[in-house]
Design brief:
The chain is an alpha/beta fold and about 500 residues long. It has helices at about 1-30, 40-50, 120-130, 145-155, 195-210, 225-235, 255-260, 270-290, 310-320, 325-335, 350-365, 370-380, 425-440, 465-480, 490-495, and strands spanning about 60, 95-100, 105-115, 135-140, 160-165, 185-190, 215, 245, 265, 340, 345, 400, 405-410, 415-420, 455.
Length: about 500
């Protein structure tokens, strides 16, 4: 019996010890950085998470310089738009921030530049990042693959619109991981990252299906002609990218030709034709699913079906019975009124009344403004920029067939293209001119102008050549900010007319 009591006591001690360990674990979990709840004050959140992570906090500093306070005495003639700091303060590692306009304690932009950022600091930034953060800039911070995954995790839970990762060549082959399905990025800068044609291939594949990115900068990389061809493949399907910077990438005439070809027309490949048929069948099935269900008698649940002897046939029968006058004629007159069909009023007949009812309802709700305010509201509506939405190019209705190939319009969504500091010669200029001449005179995309700005400084073509002169003439006309010079009439002619 004594032995049994000893065993039972030992078991109780073991259970108590285990429960004590569990309680200690729960306490430590509550003090972990992941368990911290953000308060909305970024500075206090950042310092608290640094403390819980046992990380020395890096200095937080406002990005914009604040002017000197009005209370300090300033010598006459001395500027007041500066502040003095310690000798080496601006050379120390820091995190520059911009305050959010709505919540002054939070931030909307975060900038780090010129110093090696450890994964511990990136984890703290990830855990302390507020929901209103829209811009992240990491310039030459020695970002590696592990750090890039932390950035990707941050993007998955925030609505970051602008991301700058310039000067981080260790991640050159992994930047395609940024373009996920739920990507919210609108602007991405990957300058000076030593990206080559092998690195750009998966990125171009991810770009083809991306639907958020509008601005992409690949300045000062090494994608060359092969990489330009990969990007051209990505631009076959992508219809959201508006601005593309490919300056300083060693692109020659071959790369210029690949980009020019995607700006004109596209010959669909076998895989694209198969995908097109699948998309069309999916659209048809979705439309069929939206139609109201029918009953065995041919009626729908939304509207009862009509008999075989209704409508115009019934009216004609009654006319034959009633003769030239009588009730039959009255019913016939009702049937033959313009804007009616089968004795029922059509949508066209009710259009005017519906518009009046809608206007009256809007006036009651306050949507319609009267007097000068209404005119101003109308003018503002008229001056609103027209947003052109591009559908999937594989579903283009404006297509043609030539020699057994299906031809659809090319990429008319790209509006700005920067090809400065490359090796493009006269042959490449000819390809670009033909592409822009096609867009200028094409009827495949009515109302869409295509490329509006093209820069070609510091290349190898002859600037006095005929093709380049014609190209400049086309781009001058297409530039939305170009103002045609006003030709002043001769003063003598004006005086003679008066």
């Amino acid at each position: 019996m004594a032995k049994k009591k000893e065993k039972a006591a030992a078991k109780e001690e073991t259970v108590q010890a285990v429960e004590g360990d569990v309680e200690e674990d729960e306490v430590t979990d509550d003090n972990s950085p992941e368990a911290y709840t953000l308060t909305g004050d970024y500075r206090s959140d950042y310092n608290e998470i640094c403390k819980r992570s046992d990380v020395t906090p890096v200095l937080l500093r406002p990005r914009a310089l604040t002017p000197a306070s009005s209370g300090t005495e300033v010598a006459e003639g001395q500027p007041t738009t500066f502040t003095t700091k310690d000798k080496y303060e601006y050379l120390k590692p820091c995190i520059e921030t911009e305050k959010d306009e709505e919540n002054k304690d939070s931030i909307k932009s975060l900038y780090i530049k010129g110093w090696k950022v450890s994964t511990c600091i990136l984890n703290v930034i990830n855990l302390s990042a507020p929901q209103c953060l829209t811009t992240i800039s990491l310039w030459r911070v020695g970002l590696d693959r592990e750090g890039l995954h932390i950035i990707i995790n941050m993007l998955s839970k925030l609505s970051v619109r602008n991301l700058l990762l310039d000067g981080n060549p260790e991640c050159a082959g992994y930047f395609h991981l940024l373009l996920t399905e739920d990507c919210s990025l609108a602007s991405l800068s990957l300058r000076s990252n030593k990206i080559n044609c092998t690195d750009i291939a998966p990125f171009a594949t991810a770009l083809s299906s991306n639907k958020s990115l509008t601005n992409l900068s690949l300045h000062n990389n090494s994608i060359e002609d092969e990489g330009a061809k990969h990007l051209a493949q990505g631009l076959r399907i992508n219809r959201t990218l508006l601005t593309l910077n490919l300056s300083g990438n060693k692109i020659t005439d071959g790369g210029a030709k690949a980009i020019s070809d995607v700006l004109t027309t596209l010959n669909l490949t076998h895989e694209e034709i198969v995908t097109r048929r699948k998309l069309i069948s999916e659209n048809k099935s979705s439309l069929a699913a939206d139609e109201p269900p029918t009953t065995p008698g041919g009626r729908t649940k939304d509207r009862p079906g009509s008999n075989s002897r209704t409508g115009s046939h019934t009216a004609l029968d009654k006319k034959g019975k009633g003769g030239a006058s009588g009730k039959g004629n009255k019913k016939q007159d009702k049937v033959e009124k313009p804007g009616t069909k089968d004795g029922r009023k059509s949508d066209l007949g009710n259009k005017g009344k519906d518009d009046k009812r809608k206007g009256a309802a809007d006036a009651k709700k306050g949507n319609v403004k009267k007097g000068t305010a209404g005119k101003k509201f109308q003018e503002e509506k008229e001056h609103e920029p027209e947003v052109v939405e591009f559908s999937n190019p594989l579903l283009e209705s404006n297509m043609s067939e030539k020699e057994g190939k299906i031809i659809v319009p090319g990429n008319f969504a790209l509006t700005c293209l920067n090809l400065n500091n490359n090796g493009i010669g006269d042959v490449g200029i000819t390809y670009l001119y033909k592409a822009l001449h096609f867009q200028e005179n094409s009827t495949m995309k009515r109302g869409v102008r295509g490329l509006l700005r093209l820069t070609l400084k510091n290349n190898k073509f002859d600037q006095d050549g005929r093709q380049y002169t014609q190209l400049v003439d086309i781009m001058t006309r297409r530039d939305p900010f170009y103002e045609q010079p006003i030709i002043e009439e001769d003063q003598s002619n004006l005086t003679a007319q008066t």
